[in-house]
Every structure is written in structure tokens, then in C-alpha cells.
Specification:
By secondary structure, this protein is α+β, with helices and mostly antiparallel strands. The protein has a single domain, classed as Alpha-Beta Plaits, CATH 3.30.70.20. The chain is built from two helices and four strands; from the N terminus they run βαββαβ.
């Protein structure tokens, strides 16, 4: 199973990773804000992640790390 980690304080909530995810298991948080006031991305169903790294490749700020 793949493991995703997010540098939440650097995330600006652009949503590019959310649209890039083929499994549709990423979402912009509805409950958290980082220190800049942006809602960071979060993994909604970690057990379904296949580790394709499409999200990390799409992220303009290198916020996502994928480990397989």
C-alpha cells in the first residue's frame, strides 16, 4: 500500500492534485486551515491509494510525497 504525506503548511489549496487523482480520493479540507489561511489537501481513503504519484507530479509546490 502506498503512503502519501503532505506538507500542509505549504499547500495553497489549488486543487490540481485533486483533479489529477485517478481514484478521486483527494479532497480540499473542509475543516482545516494552514497558517496562511489556505485549506490544505487531504487523503480521504488511504486504503485505496495505488501510489501512482499523479498528484505529486501535478503539485506546483512539491507538497506531496509518495512512498511505495
Amino acid at each position: 500500500m502506498a503512503r502519501l504525506t503532505f506538507k500542509e503548511e505549504l499547500c495553497k489549496g489549488c486543487g490540481l492534485c485533486v483533479t489529477a487523482c485517478p481514484k478521486k480520493i483527494l479532497a480540499i479540507s473542509k475543516t482545516k486551515l494552514n497558517h496562511k489561511g489556505h485549506a490544505p489537501v487531504e487523503l480521504t481513503k488511504p486504503e485505496e491509494c495505488v501510489g501512482c504519484a499523479s498528484c505529486a507530479l501535478m503539485c506546483p509546490d512539491c507538497v506531496i510525497t509518495v512512498e511505495r
